[in-house]
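Technical appendix A lists one of the benchmark inputs used to test multi-chain prediction within the project. The record comprises two sequence entries:
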Amino acid sequence: MSTPTNALTAVQIAAGVRSGQLKAVDVLEQHLARIDTREGEIHAFNLVLADQARAAAAAIDAAVAAGNDPGPLAGVPVALKDNMCTHGVPTTCSSKILDGWKPPYDATVVSRLNAAGAVTVGKTNLDEFAMGSSTENSAFGPTRNPHDITRVPGGSSGGSAAAVAAGFASVSLGSDTGGSIRQPAALCGVVGVKPTYGYVSRYGLVAFASSLDQIGPFTNTVQDSALLLDVIGGHDPMDSTSIPAAQPSLMAALDQGVEGLRVGRITDLPEGADPDVVERLEAAFDALRAAGATIVDVQVPAFSYGLTAYYLIAPAEASSNLARYDGVRYGLRVNAADTNAMYGVTRAAGFGEEVKRRIMLGTYALSAGYYDAYYGKALKVRRMIADDFDRAYQQADVLLTPTSPTVAFPFGAKGDNPFAMYLCDVYTIPTNLAGHPGMSVPFGTGAGGLPVGVQILAGTLGEPQMFRAGAALERAMGAAK
Amino acid sequence: MSQDTSNSQAAVSQGTTGSMIYSAGPVTGNEILIDGWELIVGLEVHVELATLTKLFSASANRFGDEPNTNIDPVTLGLPGALPVLNRHAVELAMRIGLALNCTIQPSTFHRKNYFYPDMPKAYQISQYDQPINIDGFLALPGGKRIGVERAHLEEDTGKSTHLGGSGGRIHGSDYSLIDFNRAGVPLVEIVSRPDIRTAEEARQYVTELRSILVAIGASDAKMEEGSMRCDANVSVHKPGTPYGTRCEIKNVNSIRSLGRAIEYEARRQIDMNAAGETVRQETRHWDENDGRTHTLRSKEDADDYRYFLEPDLVPLAPSKEWIQAVRDAMPMLPGARRARLSEATSIAADAEAIMVVVERGQDDYVLAVATAGGDVGRALVHVKEAFADLGPTPSVPAADLAGLTLLEVAGTITATQAKTVLADIVAAGGGNAAAIAASKGFEAMDTGALEAMVDQVIADNAVAWAKYCGGEDKAMGALVGAAMKASQGKADGKLVTALLQAKRLA
């Protein structure tokens, strides 16, 4: 087989492999070849699993040859953000503190991908413990944007976004706590989805902020994201926050179009998006209107408080989640005179600057005497945001906003100013606080010919409407090409 | 009431100058006021639940296994692992709540954050401001109610063993070993209100609580194995004034130690007050060997636990139907069992025989003897005395013991003879009391013959008789023994005793 697969979607690869028209091993080799060519300059991966992937692809082909169906992702090369546990394979979170640790179990999403016939090609780079918006906070060096290697891919799931954009994998998984899937998807020109909180099991996802973290896909097409979510979504008894009810197929929702869909414009959205980004957003409204949707004005007054509430809630949970990295049982240990001193020097050596900043911030926010003023108040804001969104979703089925205020920015551009970096997620964070789904769909280019993403938001379990809108934007772009 | 005075000599308090101030005397277990001070005690009791698996994972909850064999990613707090609440643990917690007359309410879990090597996640998942059980009470056998503020679910930590050079403490040890088998074992912490006024009440509270926990199958509640652990909050005050500053006493590993620790601590605080010193709020460690409490950490050193709602779990809200099903499955509690036996026998509910028989679970059997036509009072005595090893369902048919009690009540055989017959019945697992008594030639001696025999015994044992008349009551034993021997066991011991007493006075 010599059919080039870089032009094929995951849906097409799986269909080809299942029918025997494509060989999983050929599909894999074409992706590995691109990794050989460009990974040196991109650095999307912390670890490429070529041998393991070749064995898995061969097993898929053998299954097909034997008349068995390997599953809906048969032979699809997938990359995993390196904060998802893989049995016997190092899982680093791009942190020195997990040095040498190999999980003794697979994350639920990994088990489901394997069971569906996907082929894991590697573990992708991220901002350490998913804290960042540029992948510059990785202990193993930054990932570069395949569209312009002088610029960041976004973050924290920068490696997963770049891997799909560069054709290293057909699809990938990331995690999104405040925008860590959608923002790099926008900056790398791919589709990225953060599902409703509880849609995808978090079991085996190394926690950053447990009440906000969600796993979701990076893909080249909206349909591929639907396919991936249909595989990895659904209840998991190992995650108590997993939604118990079965979810309808998103693949089935795609065909429905946007006729009559109410698309909301948030009139009190925080300002600050660059003109080229705003222009693409307006074009997206026009495209959906042209496809039959109705545009309505809505207000989400608490939207603008999202960033500050997030930077109390997420660090508070992180300070607790990351306390287990103490050098006692696994990962890095720096020896010292006694246990308490060992904790201190181990954590000082193992964590990077941004992680330390957030641990301190979160510890402070939860401390006796400060809890009510900081963490407690942030929880109230979180409730307000969810209430405001719920009111907006009585008038609109989906909302449209920019994903990122800017296109991909150069390395070091925000390096000295944490708050400037935090502002990258001003449009994505409120959705995480509300537990709602959001997706970024590439919608043309802005300054310097760099990709611009448009963000589609929906209410709890509003994925079907969100995907309908996403597919419509994708069709509009395809028609414009 | 027995008084534990063993530490009266050691009741000292460390003065600020370092001088030792010796106390005037012992603090005994059952005095309400000590030198005008009232003792105020609240107890926090942790019990390990008798579930098959851990509170949040499928690893076995089993004591005594090879270290670090009952572990999994959740137990070890590995990155990415998530807790899933054990339904059986919730049921047992609800049983405890119902047994302690609590209200079962919707509840939540929090994280209690602190670093310790045997705490794998560096936080303990525990119920905090919304515990599952609130506002109950435990009735002591004598009837006094001790308030129960709450009984909440939480997970246990692992177990550290500090070795080399430190006497078992982490500071100064050469190295430590950690066993995570216990990490994640479900606990219920039962917090009493400060309603306990004496060391004896504290002992009774824990004893009764233990009986209840065993009766409802919630825990094996073995203090020696650590499946039941008790901390005491102790303070003293003058009645009519606010409560004094309390100290929390830890490391109390038996019910006896609990009483000793409270007595010591009360004395220490009273002495400090008497010396014009201020009791500081602190956590103190009970040392079983020297019989004292020692400062573990002061309030200022206390950790800031940074509690917040556990985001990996959802709220726990048992349905009315579930609560009712748990209620319907509850066994009769020890207090009700004692009341039932008290009513049947007209003996006080906290009388020793009733306490013992109910503790052994043999009260149903005693009542079965009554149903079989036997004398319930004699049955209670015999079961208490002779059935210690027979368990809750003795092999001896209730009708056989009923027959024996009827012979006694009718005066056909004496209490002493009854014991002998019963020993044969117990050994054989049953038997006809009348037939056994006849085979042994047992018949009660008439009073005239008995008095003649007692006179003969006095004549034959002149030395013992002289001692007895001289006020040495212990000498009575030898005389009664001789009488029993002379009568070949047919004499009624009580009658012999009465005759001897009458003759001494005469």
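Residues 1-5 of chain A have pLDDT under 50 and may be disordered. The interface with chain B takes residues 84-85, 91, 93, 98, 101, 103-105, 107, 202-207, 209-211, 237-241, 316-317, 319-320, 323-324, 326, 328-330, 338-340, 343, 363, 366-368, 371, 375 of chain A (CB under 8 Å). Comparable benchmark entries are summarised in Table A2.
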